[in-house]
Amino acid sequence: MQKILSGMTKTMNAVKPPRITALRDLHDAETGPFSILIGTILSARTKDEATTKAVKKLFSIYKNPKQLSKARVKDVEKIIKSIGFFHVKSKRIIEVAEIIDKKYKGKVPEDLDTLVQLPGVGRKTANCVLVYAFEKPAIPVDIHVHRISNRLGLVETKNPEETEQELMKKIPKKFWIDINDTFVMYGQNICKPISPMCDVCKIKKDCKFYKSKNVS
Asked: Is the distance from CB of 39 to CB of 55 less than 8 angstroms?
């Protein structure tokens, strides 16, 4: 796995330096894990740039779970209207903020089982919180991680949930924290869904997808 992660980083640096991922950019000393939790919920089906802008604006007004829990839905909608499904997400994050404030005394839980009990928080979101907020080993699997893992031949799975389980079995835990960050940037910049940049990829010799395309 070290060879794969290193090869991806070298490829991106050679093509264009990879920008910081949205969730990494959202980690704030003042808002901490809560900004990561809310940011991950808001990021679904939304571009990184829109997510970062909306979350930073949101937290410039509502500094903590208690303040957000008391916000009016219409006010939150105005702030995050640039992201996808902002009507639903506005209600969702206020609801989550209220639970964090009242049930967990303003602190975001640090374990997967508790996190997935929050409204709108699935395994991917929970794993993102563990990785980006608490630096705990987990493998958040989004469309990029799922696609690249299958293209490389690391797994043969049909959905992100299966991919997560297979990667956890096959990849040493010491690499888990770096997988999402690196794979997402690689999926956005190099190994795209359509027309992947195989010509510049420094790990193509180990890629099942590339080999299948170049069978003589």
From this structure: yes
